Amino acid sequence: MEEQEYGVAPEMPYNSGADKASIIERINPDEIVELIRMRLMGKTLDKKTGEWNTNIHLKDNAISEIGAWDITNLILSISNANTSLSKLDDKTIRRRAYGVMEKAVGMMLCNWREYKITNTAQLGYVAEIVFSITFITLKMADAEGIRKMITSMYSESRNISELSSTKSGKKMFRKV
């Protein structure tokens, strides 16, 4: 029977040398914001061709390209890595999410012709999307959730790295 070595962590199945910067780079909202922009314009992605096509079923509730860009730029001001890494409390999160939604509704009312807003259902539809994505993004910063996760991952990675260096000849415990 093979003798088991205690005090040594098993090798990690992923690159344990990953640093905070690479983890932060993965928090990239551009993809979801682009998806929201295209859906607001009534388009869906054709997975075969990779092209965005107008969906006849979404066409009636779609807004114009300028409207979709304006609304998603407003969302992008919140949906970014800096916001996710912030430390926010619930009251601030709710106030900010309602503020962004209120601004989006105001923009749609002021620019209703340019945005091709034709009914109140469109206002509610877009307002709900803006509020939801804003609230969810800001909630990531509640109680430093993402920040703590990244810090713990970095700390764990560093500890594993240090532990594996003790395997290569150094003793972990020594007599004093």
Give the topology, please.
Blueprint (H helix, E strand, L loop, with lengths): L19 H6 L4 H11 L2 E4 L4 E4 L10 H12 L4 H4 L5 H21 L9 H20 L5 H23 L9
Helix pairs in contact: 2-3, 3-5, 5-6
Q: How would you describe the overall organization of this protein?
A:
- With 176 residues, the chain is mainly α.
- The protein has one domain (20-166).
- It is built from seven helices and two strands, in the order H-H-E-E-H-H-H-H-H.
- It has helices at residues 20-25, 30-40, 65-76, 81-84, 90-110, 120-139, 145-167, and strands at 43-46, 51-54.
- The protein has a two-stranded antiparallel sheet.
- A hairpin with a 4-residue loop joins strand 1 (43-46) and strand 2 (51-54).
- Helix 2 (30-40) runs antiparallel to helix 3 (65-76) and helix 5 (90-110) packs antiparallel against helix 6.
- The longest helix is centred in the C-terminal third of the chain and has 23 residues, at 145-167.
- 18% of the residues are buried.
The low-confidence runs, each spanning 5 or more residues with pLDDT under 50, are: 4-18
Return the domain count: 1
> What is the radius of gyration?
24 Å
| Shape category | flat
Task: Tell me the number of strands.
Answer: 2
**Terminal Cα span:** 33 Å
The largest sheet has its strands arranged as: 1-2
Tell me about the biggest sheet? Answer: 2 strands, antiparallel
Count of alpha/pi helices? 7
Oligomeric category: single chain
Main structural class: mainly alpha
Q: Helix-strand pattern, N to C?
A: HHEEHHHHH
What fraction, in percent, of the residue positions are helical?
55-70%
Task: Please indicate the percent range of residues in DSSP E strands (runs of 2 or more).
Answer: under 5%
